[in-house]
Amino acid sequence: MKRIFFCLLVLMVGIIGAKNFDMSLLVGKTWQCDSVFDEDGVAGKGSSEGIYKKNGTFSGKSKVVYTKPQKYTLEIVESGTWELEGYELISVIKTYSAKSKEAPEIARAIEELVTTSIKESEERDYTENDRSTIVELTKNRLVTKSGAYNSEQTVECKAK
Questions:
Q1: How many folded domains does the chain comprise?
Q2: CA pair distance 107, 115, nearest whole angstrom
């Protein structure tokens, strides 16, 4: 009997302490996210703004300044769908464009790669690249950890 009571107590504490994020904290705000990266010979910094809408769509724009292996700036505009599954944020890109004055050939290649991937995967299940773990979500702060490439890097965003 004590063992059953203990198991029920552990289960109740787990349920009460489980992370559940309020979707209303995420939607309708412009989230400003900044990051710095230096991995596998690629370095730079990025800044993005995105909006998650109540209807399950998102839109965003980013500016990434690469410093290594080549110096150039990439400007990205994207949109797609999103949903929350527990504390996982699933974002699926539907439209994507990339531009660069310094390296237009790189921008075209990236845009082609991403748009081809979008077309090929329209009917697929979500992959780790579509998923981010929400580490923290408050009315003014969003911290996520990307599922892409088993990354342990977090990105902090602030509501504007």
A1: 1
A2: 12
Confidence (pTM): 0.78
The reported pLDDT for the residue numbered 117 is 83
Q: How many helices (H) and strands (E) does the chain have?
A: 2, 8
DSSP letters, 52-98, are E-TTSEEEEEEEEEEEESS-EEEEEEEEEEEEEETTEEEEEEEEEEE
What are the residues facing 89 on neighbouring strands? 84, 132
Q: What is the pLDDT of residues 2-53, one digit of tens each?
A: 343 333 333 333 333 345 668 789 999 999 999 898 988 999 999 999 999 9
Bond prior to 69 in cis (omega within 30° of 0): yes
pLDDT in tens, 88-122: 898 889 999 999 999 999 999 999 999 888 887 76
Contact between 98 and 74 (Cβ < 8 Å): yes
CA distance 99 to 44: 17
Query: What CATH number should be reported for the domain holding residue 108?
Result: 2.40.128
**Angstrom distance (rounded) from CA 143 to CA 153:** 10
Residue 112: inside a domain:
yes
Domain with 71, as residue range(s), is: 19-159
